[in-house]
Amino acid sequence: CESISFCTPAVLRTRHSTLNSRIMGESDLTDRAGRRMEALMRHVAPQPTSGAVRLQNRAVPRQRTDVVKWAGWGYNDAGFRVNEKGQVQFSGDKYSFGNTELPFLRKFMEDVCKLDLNDYHAPPKSYPGTVPQPIVNPAFCKDIEDHCGAMSTDTNERIFRARGQTCYEMWQMRHGKIKRFPDLIVWPRTHEDVEHIVAAATRHNVALIPYGGGTSVSLALQCPPTEKRMIVSVDTSDMCEILEVNADNMTVRVQCGIVGQDLERKLRKYNFCCGHEPDSIEFSSLGGWIATRASGMKKNIYGNIEDVVVSFRTVTPRGVVERRTQAPRISAGPDPLQSIMGSEGTLGIVTEATIKVRPLPAKRSYASLVFPSFQHGVKFMRELAYRRAAPASVRLVDNVQFKFGLSLKQESASAWQSMMDAAKKFYVTQIRKFNPDEMCVCTLLFEGDANEVEAHRKRVLEIAAAHGGLDGGEENGRRGYTLTFVIAYLRDIGLDYNMIAESFETSCPWENVLTVCSSTKKRIYERLRELGVTKPPFVSARVTQTYDAGAAIYFYMGIPCAGLSDPCGTYHDVEDAAREEIIRCGGSISHHHGIGKLRKRFMADTNTDSASSIHKAVKAELDPKNIFAAGNIH
Fold it and tell me: How far is Cα of residue 617 from the mean position of the Cα atoms in its chain?
């Protein structure tokens, strides 16, 4: 078993010597087995790994906290903060406007979000709670020692993989409230390693939770508090290589632990791209996309994940589920891969996938549009879908989010720019009579051949003009698209200053889009009043993806939580009320975030009992001992 330097043999021997009384399901082990465990753990010594060069060629290393936050979103050196001058600043150089002040954001946070930016609650530098000693199954560990790149019971690694990215989990991390931690982390390197690990877990009755990018926002990675068996987090991040490129078929075979930014970077060497670009592309993995039925910002050209994937392999306790053909489409009864896609780690581990690729686009062009109202913007989006004219990405934000976007602008670089900004504002509000409290903005991205992009852009602008839209310029479109990768960092500064915030999403038919948006916002305000919350929330919506028959909608909700006895409980109470309203108005339980444990109770509103029994029957057949015990979906 290759080793990792952050898990020393002395630490492991000390830990495992105290665990004899805590090993679950192994009470009949002899002292000889215990000595074998000691010998096994001596393999985990700080020495170079044979895969060190290969593993350096990726965005996030095994010891993830070297690069990303232990209890927050994104890179360690990136994020919003109030600087020494009292201005809000985005730090770090990972993004185009890093290390710059945002002079309008403080006023927005104080006036609109009602936050006191003098009341700072610094996040702890390490987990403030108690982490129990791991439950260890020595026979399992011995069984897999030659079939993983590394294994670790390091406390920090266990803490990191005990959570996803919901505001609830971040609150728990900051306050030391995590109820159950994985006991062991293992890093398989290949499909065959995963087969050995799953087979060993089945033999020794060990619980497994697959771990890809760790970006789940559905509590899918949360360890069940009542699980008494050893829980092993199977970290697939060492499985990050492109295995085969087929230029004739325009496909590649890829290990599923690869994260989106690494996939695109490696494909560029072949002049290809995948094009699947969720907001979390920097950190989320291909396997995670498949496991949650993910969607990306550029799905209008490249498709959702079900359109991108040709086939994939999944290791279950019953064996490997895969198709024996790489044909682009097949009529051979119910598709077994569709039973796996969206199963959220409850059936097995997705190890490899064959996906479609495209040539790198010759041109990428941004645009933005300004509409008199959200209603005008939605009609424009509907016509784009009707005419099959949507560009790679098109997203419409409401007035609240439009104003919030303005607060994220940097100071104009010159007097000329300031004058031009003032002139544009005068034209929009005084000449065209757009109401600043109703107008909204749409950002667009075009990709493709240079001539096609220009023709497409012209067509879209003509459709927009028919609905009262004005050309807002390329730079605003570029900036709006880039902000997508930065918005998630706002959740963390919110926690620093007593606001608990999160996004949630849905999809619905076109005829319900406006009703879902307005009624859900109204219900959020009502529920907060019922709970006695007096400070107004931040609530906004945007239409993010379009289809022939409907659209996807994102909601952003932030609740000032100073003085609340249970901020997380309040937030989730209100989010559940919003979800109930979404479903009542014809919306779905989720467009692409998935179910996890967070939305399980709404499954009865989504599928009939007979429909739900299909997944339960597949689970019973493929995993009768509940080895994949995350407890998601049902």
Answer: 28
Q: How much of the chain is in helix, strand and coil states, percent to nearest 5?
A: 40, 20, 45
List, for residues 400-452, the tens digit of each pLDDT value: 999 999 899 887 655 545 545 655 665 677 778 888 899 999 999 999 999 99
pLDDT for the residue 490: 94
Q: What residues of the chain score a pLDDT lower than 50?
A: 1-53, 416, 419
Identity at 483, one-letter amino acid code: L
Measuring CA to CA, how many Å separate 265 from each of 73, 109, 190, 241, 395?
A: 22, 36, 21, 11, 25
Angle between helices 567-584 and 167-175 (to 10 degrees): 170
Q: Is residue 556 annotated as a catalytic residue, yes or no?
A: no
Q: Of residues 127, 211, 489, 554, which has the active-site annotation?
A: 554
Tokens 């789940």, residue?
216
Q: Quick check: 438 and 373 in contact, CB under 8 A?
A: yes
- The per-residue pLDDT for 210 is 98
With CA atoms as reference, report the closest residue to 380 among 440, 448, 299. 440
Report how far Cα 40 is from the mean position of its chain's Cα atoms.
36
**In terms of Cα–Cα distance, which of 355, 257, 281, 249 is closest to 312?**
355
Q: Which helix (H) or strand (E) holds 539?
A: strand 538-546
pLDDT tens-digit profile of 528-554? 999 999 999 999 999 999 999 999 999
Instruction: Measure CA 451 to chain center.
Output: 34
Q: Is 278 helix (H, G, I), strand (E, B) or coil?
A: coil
State the CB neighbour count (10 A cutoff) for residue 433. 8
Q: What is the pLDDT of residue 55?
A: 58
CA distances to 78, 492, 502 from 586, rounded to whole Å, are 38, 32, 22
Six-digit token pair at 278? 């969720």
Alpha helices in 276-373 (DSSP H): 286-292, 299-302, 305-308, 336-340
CB contact set of 598 (below 8 Å; sequence gap of 6+) = 166, 217, 218, 219, 572
Sign, Cα dihedral of 369, 375, 380, 385: positive
Spatial separation of the C-alpha atoms in residues 603 and 607, rounded to whole Å: 6
Cα separation, 354 vs 327, in Å, equals 11
According to DSSP, the residues that pair with 560 across neighbouring strands are: 499
For 385, other C-beta atoms within 10 Å of its C-beta total 20
Q: How many CB atoms lie within 10 A of CB 237?
A: 25
Q: Please report, in angstroms and rounded to a whole number, the separation of the first and last CA atoms in the chain.
A: 36
Lookup result for tokens 């010597």: 17
Residue 512 contacts residue 543 (beta carbons within 8 Å): no
To the nearest 10°, the Cα dihedral for 411, 412, 414, 420?
A: -160
Helix (H, G, I), strand (E, B) or coil at 113: coil
Query: What is the model's pTM?
Result: 0.90
Closest CA to 190 of 51, 5, 19, 342: 51
Can you tell me the distance from the alpha carbon of 384 to that of 182, in angstroms, rounded to the nearest whole number? 47
pLDDT for the residue 3: 33
Note the pLDDT of residue 121.
95
